[in-house]
Design a protein that fits this description.
single chain, 264 residues, alpha+beta, nine-stranded antiparallel beta sheet, globular
Length: 264
């Protein structure tokens, strides 16, 4: 299950590799049902009077701490839909089991460059029909650099629980954008994390349209974005980010947002 020589060349050149339909329909059915159950329970707990605190970011987006995780609520005013939960695998055993699934672990050894890999962080992304919001061009690296200077050793696998299409907000990538390390950020943007679009060649954009059960393996330096879900279909994904084994998870590290100013 390791990356083939051709896949290793593609990963080195483009910063990502896609493997289609590596999960079976019955597995996906269970994962989708579990995702909905987890999301419903997280919302229920977050809406209790004694729920965890909320934080409004500089860009106006709201996060809440609850269920030993961070909830990102959808950005539309008044929405009670979750757009992202991080981390999430501790919320159900079938999600936790994904960390040791050889379909993830073996390719990740090549993506990370280590014969032993372990968890860094994980996200469940729920891009709901007609409500799932877009996310601008960015690299994962700055978001992780504020926790660890070893962020460059982290890579991610994104498992698509539903078919991903341009209409329902499929991920869009800039092939080869990982080769130059951190790209300049948009310093006029309130959070200072998204990339400076004026310094990107977006003509190379590729839409990752794949069937459910497919996996996208990508570098922390790959520049990517997602469009809104303008369709009537779900676009649910789970993302597991790996690092060389033995290093602390993001949840065990201190958050230092000021470190973003050390980056281009």
């Amino acid at each position: 299950m390791r990356l083939t020589p051709e896949e290793r060349r593609a990963y080195a050149a483009d910063g990502f590799v896609v493997r289609e339909r590596i999960f079976f329909p019955a597995e996906l059915e269970q994962l989708r049902a579990t995702a909905e159950d987890v999301a419903a329970r997280v919302i229920e707990r977050a809406e209790r009077p004694d729920a965890g605190p909320s934080v409004t970011l500089a860009d106006g987006h709201r996060m809440q701490f609850s269920s030993s995780t961070v909830i990102q609520w959808e950005w539309a005013e008044g929405s009670r839909e979750i757009r992202l939960i991080e981390p999430f695998t501790h919320l159900h055993p079938c999600f936790d089991a994904l960390w040791t699934d050889p379909r993830f672990v073996e390719p990740m050894k090549d993506a990370v460059g280590s014969e032993t890999v372990g968890p860094y962080t994980c996200k469940m992304n729920l891009k709901r029909p007609r409500e799932g919001s877009a996310f601008p061009w960015h690299q994962d690296y700055p978001y992780w650099y504020i926790f660890t200077h070893d962020a460059g050793a982290v890579a991610t696998v994104m498992l698509f629980l539903d078919d991903a299409t341009a209409a329902n907000g499929a991920m869009r990538v800039l092939p080869g954008s990982h080769r130059h390390g951190p790209v300049p950020r948009d310093r006029a943007e309130p959070t200072k994390f998204p990339a400076d679009v004026s310094k990107l060649d977006t003509s190379r954009e590729r839409v990752v349209e794949v069937p459910a059960g497919s996996a996208l393996f990508f570098s922390c330096f790959l520049v990517h974005r997602s469009a809104p879900n303008d369709s009537t279909l779900q676009r649910r994904t789970v993302l597991l980010s790996y690092q060389p084994a033995g290093r602390p998870r993001q949840s065990e590290l201190q958050w230092h947002p000021e470190r973003v100013d050390e980056l281009p």
